[in-house]
Amino acid sequence: MRFLRIALCLAFSFSLTMLVHAQATDPAIVKTENGLVRGVVANGVISWKGIPYAKPPIGELRWRVPQSVQAWSEVKDATKFGPACMQTDDIPKSEDCLTLNVWRPAAAAERPLPVMVWIYGGALVHGSTAIYPLDAIAPQGVVAVSMNYRMGRFGFFAHPALAAESPNDVRGNYGYLDQLAALEWVKRNIAAFGGDPAQVTIFGESAGGGSVLVHIVSPMSRGRFQRAILQSPCAPCERAGVLPASDLAKAEKIAVDWSGSVGVTGNDAAALRQLRALSAEKLLEGVSSKETLAALFAGTTPPGMSMAIIDGRFLPLTPEDALHSGQVAMIPTMIGSNDRDLPSGSAKSKDELFAVFGPAAEQAREAYDPLGNQTLDELKQQVFADRTFSEPTRYFAREMTRAGQPVWLYRFAYVSEAQRGTDMGVLHAFEIPFTLNIPAAMVKDKVTATDKIMADVTSGYWVQFAKTGDPNGASRPEWPRYDPSMDRILHFTNSGVIVGTDPWKARIDLWEAVWAREAAGSGQKQTMSGGSLAGTSWQLVKFEGGDGTTLVPEDKSKYTVAFADDGGVSVRIDCNRGHGTWKSPGPGQLQFGPMALTRAMCPAAPLNDRFPRDWDQVRSYVLKDGHIFLSLVADGGIYEFEPAGEKP
């Protein structure tokens, strides 16, 4: 027996030695935090595919925040894409889908490489990483990453029974939380693949661009990336009025109404068990891409699916409000759309169409149809694509510039030579082959040398931005930062890259005026003391930090905030008292002025230091179930208060 144990130990030691040797000699074998993965080398690129970044969200983990992956002992094969997340498209798919992929140059680098993380689009109901190979941008000197994430009712569902089961979880936006988990995986693991975790650029198109926008807004995503590129972003859009989003109460109603339609009633644990017992096929009914777009363009959401949820924690504000109030990640960005992008809206006549512009209807008619000979369908394409993408991307550029951040604005109008004569411009998503440097993706063997040159130029801007935070370099035309006073854009055209004043400026100005009138009519920019907080008093329930820290006061009545009608605020922090000011410049927005605080020597407690330090980091609030939640701009922390004097 003793000799058997010695033999087993020697065998294990030998196997371990061989694994370590293999990792040292084979660059396709990399050690992650969970175990070794083996990729493949091809065409000067090493790729690893199908790496789990979270536990499979199945069974009891359906509609839960992503959970940490369990370690594995063998070398995991990472040469094939994992299945797509559940959707109606006829592709390999599974609920067990939370995997990511990594590409890097095969040649050794002298220093860690910048990282580009791609988020695919698809109206939050379809798409997968397998559609978008990133092996053509990695050779340009970056480590590229893409991830699958939950979509449809699997990814955006906020039944109230989930709150009872996991009251401390962020709920509803599970697809976005998957993306965040992948970004956190990148932060912890990408160095092993040769990437620099301090130089991460996220980029995406359509709902993928909308996801990038969400992470720019979310306080929980702060520090996970340093730059961002948004290609025709929407769902959610930069303008709240373009496509519907849901607050948590609305999202819960959407979930409850749909649950009732499939025979599940109640908000208790039994109802949740019934919902989790539903087949994946049942959850997919009614949320195909076609059905989802039809619902969104009609101004509603698909049954049972909330789209982006303004939940007060992960997403405390609409992107429009967050941009307007400066409650966003302060980072360099690139943003733009296509010249034949996706229109959302409807009109049965030209008169109805131009009536959207209110008192500027005749100006709009002159801008879009000066000769009166445009067809209604063509006008709807132009007018509603401007509504959905052209103006909102400029709004983003203006607000980020106003916040002091560099922005580069573009419009993509280069049509592959094989598609000219059939396509009147660049349709939604048709710029992707050029940004990813795969110009043959749609035209196959009809790709031309000119197409390849445009792909080299376009992807060159994207990669250079990821490397330096500025797209300029090499021999490409100089792309100036966006300046609202000049309104210049970089225009990718069939004649080449052109820099100049936006030729659609007059049209986009008209849409900006529409949004301004709607905001004024709804009272969006409310005054300092006219909001719902005036005259209220609150006591602290708990603090939850973005890093998972939880602090609970021993005596809630010793940590209070009272909002006065005149814009003054009184606070108590243990044995100290303080006074300051508050203002709410818009819905859900909250800012405190400097606080004068007494300096008595209270007993040592973490909250006594934390509370005053976080005071000027508060940027937003949510009122829910009689409690108020204050969100911090810095680390995603949340202070939860209940009405003062409330008993436990």
Structure keywords:
single chain; 648 residues; alpha/beta; Rossmann fold; 4 domains; eleven-stranded mixed sheet; ten-stranded antiparallel sheet; globular
Question: What does the model show?
Answer:
The longest helix has 27 residues, at 376-402. This protein is globular. The protein contains 18 helices and 26 strands. Helix 13 (376-402) packs across helix 17 (505-522). The chain is α/β, with parallel strands linked by helices. Strands 3-4-6-8-7-9-10-13-14-15-16 form an eleven-stranded mixed sheet, sandwiched between helices. Strands 17, 18, 19, 20, 21, 22, 23, 24, 25 and 26 form a ten-stranded antiparallel sheet that branches. Strands 1-2-5 form a three-stranded mixed sheet, covered by helices on one side. The chain folds into four domains: 1-28; 32-310, Rossmann fold (3-Layer(aba) Sandwich); 342-522, Rossmann fold (3-Layer(aba) Sandwich); 537-643, Lipocalin (Beta Barrel), CATH 2.40.128.270.
Give a nutshell description of this structure.
With 648 residues, the chain is α/β, with parallel strands linked by helices.
How far apart the termini lie comes to: 62 Å
Contiguous helical run count: 18
What fraction strand?
Answer: 15-25%
The CATH class designation of the largest domain is Alpha Beta
Main pleated-sheet profile: 11 strands, mixed
| Overall number of strands | 26
Cα Rg: 26 Å
Question: What's the CATH architecture name of the largest domain?
Answer: 3-Layer(aba) Sandwich
Q: How would you summarize the topology of this molecule?
A:
Elements lengths: L1 H24 L3 E3 L4 E3 L1 E3 L2 E8 L23 E2 L21 E7 L7 E7 L23 E5 L4 H4 L4 H6 L8 H16 L5 E11 L1 H11 L9 E5 L14 E2 H14 L7 H9 L2 H5 L4 H9 L11 E2 L8 H7 L7 E6 L11 H6 L5 H8 L7 H27 L4 E6 L19 H4 L4 H4 L5 H20 L19 E6 L2 E6 L3 H18 L14 E8 L5 E2 L7 E5 L4 E6 L2 E8 L7 E2 L3 E2 L8 H9 L3 E7 L2 E6 L5 E6 L5
Parallel strand pairs: 2-5, 7-8, 7-9, 9-10, 10-13, 11-12, 13-14, 14-15
Antiparallel strand pairs: 1-2, 3-4, 4-6, 6-8, 15-16, 17-18, 17-19, 17-26, 19-20, 20-21, 21-22, 21-23, 24-25, 25-26
